[in-house]
Amino acid sequence: MGSKLSTALISIKLLALAALTTAAQAQDKSNDIIARGEYLARAGDCTACHTAPEGRLFAGGRAMPTPFGTLYTSNITPDLDTGIGKWSADDFYKTMHSGRFPDGGLIYPAMPFASYTKVTRADSDAIFAYLRSIAPVSQKNKPHELRFPYDNRQLILGWRTLFFSEGEFKPDPKKSAEWNRGAYLVEGLGHCGMCHSPINALGGTSQSDAFKGGLIPMQNWYAPSLTSNREAGLGDWSIKDITDLLQTGVSMRGVVYGPMAEVVHNSLQYLNDEDTKAMAVYLKGIAEPSPPPPASSTLPTTESSLLISLGKTVYDKHCASCHGTQGEGKPPHWPPLANNQSIEMQSAVNPIRMVLNGGYPPGTKGNPMPYGMPPFAGLLSDNEIAAVVSYIRTAWGNRGTPVSAREANELRSAPLN
Amino acid sequence: MFARAAASVAVTITLATIVLATIVLATITLATIDGAAAQTANQPPDTMAARVEACTPCHGNKGEGTSDVYFPRLAGKPAGYLYNQLLAFRSGRRKYPPMNYLLEFLPDPYLEAMAEYFAGEHPPLPQPAPSEVSKDVLAQGELLATSGDASRNIPACVSCHGPGLAGMQPGIPGLLGLRANYISAQLGAWRYGTRTAKSPDCMQQVAGHLTEADVTAVAAWLATRPAPTNPAPVPKGTYALPFGCGSQPN
C-alpha cells in the first residue's frame, strides 16, 4: 500500500515535471517565435511608418504625405479597441497577403502589401506573435485626409487591377538558396521596390519596371535603379562593399543619405550577416552589365564649360579638403566622388541636394558616430551649386552631365523630412 | 604587398624551412602593419571636430556662431541644454527642417558627444553689436531682464539664467553671445507655441506673459551685454529656480 502510494506520488511528480518541462519548452518556443518576429518586423521596417516621432512603438499616427493627400498610419499594437488586439493570425496574414482588412475593406497601397504579399505564412505568423507581445497602446487611428476623388476607397480596386499581383514568393530553382533568400528579403519584407521602382501618375509600378529607379514622390529624392550599373546597380561592387553599405550605412564605394539612411537606420543594420550577404548576392545578380549610353546634356556647350570651370574653383575651395583633389575622398567616411555612381546618374537630384543640405549617414552599430557633410545652401549661390555639381559629375572620368542653376534653385525648396 | 607575400609563400613551399617560414611571417606582419598605417593615413581625423563639420557652416568652426544672426552660438553652453536641443530637433519637436534633417538618424550617445563637444569649446564671445533700438527700449529690456515684472507674472531672466546670464548646469543656457534677432525669434517661438520643451515648459510660461514690445526690449538689451570675465555656466544647484522647469529637473 505504502509502496503503491509512493509510486503514485512519484508518478504524479514525474507527470508534473513533464508538464512543467513541456510548458517551459512551449514558452521557449513561443519566445523564439517572438524574437524571430521582431527580427522580421525589423526586416520589414514596420516601425518607419507605424511609429510616429516621439510616439509609442507601433501606435501609428505618423503622417504620410502622398500626391493624393495625407495618410495616417494605423495602430498595430495589440490594443483591443484601437489596435489589432482582436485580430487572429489568419486576419494578419490575409491583410499582409491580400491588402484587405479582416472585414474586406481595401487598404491604401502606401502600405507595401504588393511586396508583403510575398511573405510566407510562417514569417507572417512570427511577426504577428511579436506584435501581440508588445505593450498595447490605446490610441485611435487618425482619419486620412485625401482629396476628392482619392478619398473614395473603391478607386483602390482599379489600382489593384493594374499593379497588384497577389502571391507568396516563389523561389527560382535555377538560382542558389542564398540568391533566393536575398530575393525574398528584397522583393518581400524589404519592399525595396516601393522606392527603387518608377512610380507612374497613378501611383503604381508595373512589374516590368521593378527596381528601375525613380523619383520618390513628395520627398524629391531620386531612388536609383538597382538594375542599372549606371545608377545604383551593384554589378561591379564587391559583396563586402554591398554588405558594408547595407549594415553600416558607409562603404568604400559610397554612403547612404536621405530616405536610404532611414532604411539602414531602422531596418537593415539589424539583419544578420547571412541575410545581409544574401541580399548583396541577389542585388549584385540583378544588375545589368551593359548600361545604356548617357543622355546628352540639355545645356549649351559654352554654358557647360563656363559652369565646369567655375565648379573647379568652388570645388577646390570648399570640397577638396575632404573629397580630395582627384575626387578620391577618404572612404568610407568621406566618400569618393570619382567613379561614384550616385554622382553620375542621369538624375542630378541627389548630388544637388547633398551640396545644398549636406547630411549625415545613419548612426549604426557598425558606424555609431558617422561623419557629416556640411550644408552649403547658405554659402553658395544657385550658380555656384550648379557649377560644382556639374564639375563633380564630369571630372576625373565621371560620365554625368552638367546641371543648370535653375535645377539647383528648384531643389532649395524641396522638403527636407 | 600581395606580390611580396605570394613570392614568399612560394619560396616557403619549395624549401620548407623554419627560417624561411619565419621570414614569411615577418613579411606578412610587416605588410599588415604597412597596410594599417596606410589606411589610417587615408582616413579622416578620428576627432569630434571632424565629425561635426556638418555643423560649422551655420554655427562656426568652434560653435562660436557665424555672420548669420539667426544661427546661434553653441560654444560653452551647458551640455545638458545642447543635448536637449539636439533631441528636440531630432524628434521634430523643435522645428527647423535643415536641423531636423541632419539629426534624424543619429543615436543618443552620439548626440550627447556632440553636445559635450560644443559645451567644451570656449572661443571668445563676440563684441556686442551697437543696438538699433532707443535708450528707453534698452532700459525697459534691462529692467525686465534683471528685475522682471511681478505685476505681470514675469520673472527676471537672471532668476533662472543666472546673475551673470551664463546659465546653469546642466540644462539652463547662457544668454550671452547671441544676436538680438535670434533671441527675439526664439522668444516669439515660445510665445506662439512653435518652440516647446519638456513639461513643465517654463520658458513657454514666461514667454506667454511677454508682449511683442517686451520681446524686442529684452532681446536688444541682452545682445548689448559685454562678455563677462567668466562666461562658464555655474554648477548645478548654485541657486534655486523660482518655479519648476522640465528641462532642469531638481
TrEMBL record, chain A:
Gene Ontology MF terms: electron transfer activity; heme binding; iron ion binding; oxidoreductase activity, acting on CH-OH group of donors
Position of the signal peptide: 1-26
Xref: Gene3D superfamilies: Cytochrome c-like domain
Domain spans labelled Cytochrome c: 32-135, 177-287, 306-396
Domain of life: Bacteria
InterPro entries the UniProt entry points to: Cyt_c-like_dom, Cyt_c-like_dom_sf, Cyt_C_IC, Cytochrome_c-type_DH, Membr-bd_ADH_cyt_c
The protein, known as: Cytochrome c, mono-and diheme variants
From TrEMBL, chain B:
Superkingdom as given in the UniProt entry: Bacteria
This protein's name: Cytochrome c553
Transmembrane segments: none
Domain Cytochrome c intervals: 136-226
Keyword Endoplasmic reticulum appears in the UniProt entry: no
Gene Ontology MF annotations: electron transfer activity; heme binding; iron ion binding
Coiled-coil region(s): none
InterPro entries linked: Cyt_c-like_dom (IPR009056), Cyt_c-like_dom_sf (IPR036909), Cytochrome_c4-like (IPR024167), Cytochrome_c_Oxidase_Subunit (IPR050597)
Modification after translation: Binds 2 heme c groups covalently per subunit.
GO cellular component, one term: periplasmic space
PROSITE patterns, per the entry: CYTC
Pfam families cross-referenced by the UniProt entry: Cytochrom_C
Binding site for heme c 1: C55, C58, H59, M99
List of residues binding heme c 2: C157, C160, H161, M203
UniProt organism field: Bradyrhizobium shewense
Keyword Heme: yes
UniProt keyword annotations, A-Z: Heme, Iron, Metal-binding
Upper taxonomic lineage: Bacteria, Pseudomonadati, Pseudomonadota, Alphaproteobacteria, Hyphomicrobiales
